């Protein structure tokens, strides 16, 4: 739907631009034959250029912030939730536009079919005659003479035998120069672009130019201007009925009569057609699409040059990714190491990827430990169809709290939260954006976050937390004589309280109890927030009693 709307808008812009060039610079000149081809070429260019845009190459180095379509295109598999109104029904304004557009297109197509059917019925009903090398059908339905393909329709009641030479000469020009093709082409375009008034301007200009060509052809055969103009004036009371035909009195006005006697435009003024070049250049620029080619040098870390990965032979890898509970992890990023080829895991936890020979893959998800799988491991389980299957389990990457060592040296602070979507890049981030957030928790479960937009904050800040841990370690070691190391995991819940305290590692029971005491006696934190909502966050606290 969006593709259709985008095409109609883009093509309509080209139609408006090219007609403006014709109206401003060419419509009053006597280059009628050149104008004919300009009008047809303008319509062809406007309608085909959005479908076959100009391609240009953009070289992007791997590891930069240059956009990589290979990765971005995979996100189209992520399900999208449509907006729902208060009544619970899906409403999409694009559907309304589509219905209106298709209704209009159907009406104008029906109009074209009816007009064609009427002419075909006349050809079947009335006997066709040959006169001076052309086919003529005499009918009483239409008063004006006109041509349709290679047949001329004449009403004998409205035309005397003396008028026939000029009428036939006029219609012969239409038939000889195949003006029917132009008419059929523009009529089909009016069905597609019926909503664009400039397509109707194009139709009128094409038909008017046909009449200029026919008038020129009649006068070139020796017919006098005065007699021919008098014949045309006699047709003023008639009106055009069939849009797909060339009518003798179409656009019969002062301009048409003046054009017969107008001095031929000098060839030098043909340079006006050059005005089409800026219009064409503008459309080429507007519709051009970049084609990214990633280039990178091989690094000592063993990363493979992206351009080489693309050219190598590949294997088909079908994988499944689950968490520690066995539940799927949709949205996990699966990327060929050192390149930009990758995919995103579906809702059922599965993915399929063509992996170049001797390449490794990297599996990553926010809050989970990254997995790097070598080519040897990838090809360990071959299936009957020649593909390879792998199953991965992503484990939680809990945030570890660092505290001061015995010598008082301050260790590195915990890693910063992931960049917020839409924030400006500092230039040091990876070219690959973080994968989407984890799926919603099942009914009855509490979703625990590892990394959130706004991390929890200890009262008075990170320095105060380090002071608290150091004092508690010293107090417990001195008062209870505890020695050894231990690690406890805990959760700062949505209310800011420390809960779910569990011992992960311990040298002895005393060290484990001391670590639990440090965590359980922590004051309330300022809770972390995900998209403005308070959420629980996991932490890991290592302590050492000396």
TrEMBL record:
* Gene Ontology cellular-component terms listed: plasma membrane protein complex
Is the keyword Hydrolase assigned to this protein?
Answer: no
Q: Where is the TonB C-terminal domain?
A: 458-546
List the transmembrane segments: 6-25, 37-56, 98-122, 179-202, 270-288
Disordered: annotated span: 405-444
Instruction: Provide the alphabetized UniProt keywords.
Output: Membrane, Transmembrane, Transmembrane helix
Q: What is this protein called?
A: TonB C-terminal domain-containing protein
């Amino acid at each position: 739907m969006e593709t259709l709307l985008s095409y109609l808008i883009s093509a309509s812009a080209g139609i408006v631009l090219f007609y403006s060039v014709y109206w401003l610079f060419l419509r009053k000149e006597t280059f009628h034959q050149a104008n004919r081809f300009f009008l047809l070429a303008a319509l062809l260019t406007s309608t085909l250029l959005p479908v076959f845009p100009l391609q240009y190459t953009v070289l992007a180095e791997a590891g930069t912030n240059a956009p990589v379509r290979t990765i971005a295109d995979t996100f189209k598999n992520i399900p999208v939730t449509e907006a729902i109104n208060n009544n619970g029904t899906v409403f999409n304004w694009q559907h309304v536009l589509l219905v209106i557009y298709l209704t209009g297109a159907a009406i104008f197509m029906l109009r074209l079919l009816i007009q064609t059917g009427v002419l075909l019925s006349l050809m079947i009903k009335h006997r066709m005659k040959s006169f001076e090398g052309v086919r003529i059908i005499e009918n009483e339905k239409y008063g004006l003479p006109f041509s349709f393909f290679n047949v001329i329709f004449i009403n004998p009641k409205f035309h005397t035998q003396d008028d026939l030479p000029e009428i036939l000469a006029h219609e012969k020009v239409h038939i000889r120069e195949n003006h029917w093709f132009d008419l059929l082409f523009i009529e089909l375009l009016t069905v597609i672009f019926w909503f664009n008034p400039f397509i109707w301007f194009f139709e009128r200009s094409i038909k008017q130019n046909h009449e200029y060509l026919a008038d020129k052809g009649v006068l070139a055969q020796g017919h006098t201007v005065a007699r021919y103009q008098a014949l045309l004036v006699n047709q003023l009371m008639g009106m055009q009925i069939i849009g797909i035909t060339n009518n003798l009195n179409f656009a019969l006005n002062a301009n048409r009569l003046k054009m017969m006697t107008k001095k031929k435009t000098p060839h030098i003024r043909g340079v006006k057609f050059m005005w089409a070049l800026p219009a064409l250049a503008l459309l080429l620029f507007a519709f051009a699409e970049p084609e990214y080619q990633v280039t990178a040098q091989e690094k000592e870390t063993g990363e493979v040059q992206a351009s080489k990965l693309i050219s190598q032979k590949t294997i088909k890898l079908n994988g499944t990714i689950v968490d520690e509970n066995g539940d799927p992890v949709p949205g996990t990023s699966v990327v060929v190491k050192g390149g930009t080829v990758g995919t995103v895991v579906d809702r059922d936890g599965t993915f399929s990827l063509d992996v170049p020979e001797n390449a490794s893959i990297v599996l990553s998800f926010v809050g989970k430990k990254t997995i790097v799988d070598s080519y040897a491991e990838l090809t360990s389980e071959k299936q009957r169809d020649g593909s390879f299957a792998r199953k991965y389990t992503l484990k939680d990457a809990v945030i570890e709290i660092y505290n001061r060592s015995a010598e008082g040296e301050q260790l590195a602070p915990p890693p910063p939260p992931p960049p917020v979507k839409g924030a400006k890049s500092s230039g040091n981030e990876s070219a690959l954006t973080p994968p989407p957030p984890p799926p919603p928790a099942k009914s009855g479960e509490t979703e625990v976050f590892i990394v959130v937009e706004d991390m929890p904050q200890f009262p008075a800040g990170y320095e105060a937390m380090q002071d608290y841990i150091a004092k508690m370690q010293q107090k417990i070691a001195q008062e209870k004589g505890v020695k050894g190391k231990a690690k406890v995991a805990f959760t700062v819940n949505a209310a800011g309280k420390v809960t779910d305290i569990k011992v992960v590692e311990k040298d002895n029971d005393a060290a484990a109890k001391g670590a639990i005491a440090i965590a359980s006696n922590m004051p309330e934190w300022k809770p972390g927030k995900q998209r403005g909502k308070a959420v629980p966050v996991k932490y890991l606290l290592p302590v050492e009693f000396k």
